Automatic annotation (TrEMBL):
<feature type="transmembrane region" description="Helical">
    <location>
        <begin position="69"/>
        <end position="92"/>
    </location>
</feature>
<feature type="transmembrane region" description="Helical">
    <location>
        <begin position="6"/>
        <end position="29"/>
    </location>
</feature>
<feature type="transmembrane region" description="Helical">
    <location>
        <begin position="41"/>
        <end position="63"/>
    </location>
</feature>
<dbReference type="GO" id="GO:0005886">
    <property type="term" value="C:plasma membrane"/>
</dbReference>
<keyword id="KW-0812">Transmembrane</keyword>
<protein>
    <recommendedName>
        <fullName>UPF0056 membrane protein</fullName>
    </recommendedName>
</protein>
<dbReference type="InterPro" id="IPR002771">
    <property type="entry name" value="Multi_antbiot-R_MarC"/>
</dbReference>
<feature type="transmembrane region" description="Helical">
    <location>
        <begin position="187"/>
        <end position="208"/>
    </location>
</feature>
<feature type="transmembrane region" description="Helical">
    <location>
        <begin position="145"/>
        <end position="166"/>
    </location>
</feature>
<dbReference type="Pfam" id="PF01914">
    <property type="entry name" value="MarC"/>
</dbReference>
<comment type="similarity">
    <text>Belongs to the UPF0056 (MarC) family.</text>
</comment>
<keyword id="KW-1133">Transmembrane helix</keyword>
<keyword id="KW-1003">Cell membrane</keyword>
<feature type="transmembrane region" description="Helical">
    <location>
        <begin position="113"/>
        <end position="139"/>
    </location>
</feature>
<keyword id="KW-0472">Membrane</keyword>
Length: 210
């Protein structure tokens, strides 16, 4: 087993997903939740990320090939979703409570942000999925696949532990600080979405790079 390969794979995940950098986003997305709900959201999000990336590792390329989807096209789709989420953040609408008649009768529940947008596309986004696809294509031996799966599980545990620092940030910033950061992060995410779309367009239309 080549430990250098797994170290490179693991560090690449940390760099691309950047769970520490996502802490302010996580705090923003869960500002309407209690501490217990926030902890559960972090756990679900990281579990979802691990599942998504393991599925990508095992059959991701086959799924894209099945639907004739290229990585650049996937980047454009992911970037578009990020832009829509960013626009909601800029308008301060993300995390609003939405009720239907059944929820009103039972006691309304708030939007779950654990899977969308936190796990997908913010964490397991086009960059992370593309990285996993590249490694799975280059290192397809069963032992290597098992090793990379273990790396993904360890990453999920580490990222989940980092997310537990979110309550400290929430207490320091307060609701006013969270509202300010919501707009700032929305603007940054909008920029990220545009960059991801631009990378996808360059992949689909190489002439744009000239």
């Amino acid at each position: 087993m080549d430990l250098t390969l797994y170290l490179q794979f693991f560090l690449g995940l940390i760099a691309i997903i950047n769970p520490i950098g996502l802490l302010p986003v996580f705090v923003t997305l869960t500002s309407h939740q209690s501490e217990e709900e926030r902890r559960r959201t972090g756990t679900i999000a990281n579990f979802a990320v691990v599942v998504i990336l393991i599925v990508t590792l095992l059959i991701g390329q086959h799924i894209l090939d099945m639907f004739s989807i290229s990585i650049p096209a996937f980047r454009i789709a992911g970037g578009t979703l990020i832009m829509f989420i960013a626009m909601s953040m800029l308008q301060g609408k993300l995390g609003e409570v939405k009720h239907n008649k059944a929820e009103d009768r039972e006691s309304a529940t708030k939007d779950s942000v654990a899977v969308v947008p936190l796990a997908l596309p913010l964490m397991a986004g086009p960059g992370a999925i593309s990285s996993v696809l590249v490694f799975s294509a280059q290192y397809s031996e069963p032992v290597e696949t098992v090793g990379m799966t273990i790396c993904l599980v360890i990453f999920g545990l580490l990222s989940g532990a980092i997310f537990r620092l979110a309550p400290v940030i929430f207490k320091v910033l307060g609701h006013t600080g969270i509202n300010v950061i919501t707009r700032i992060m929305g603007l940054l995410m909008l920029s990220i979405g545009i960059e991801v779309i631009a990378a996808g367009l360059k992949g689909l239309f190489p002439i744009l790079t000239h």
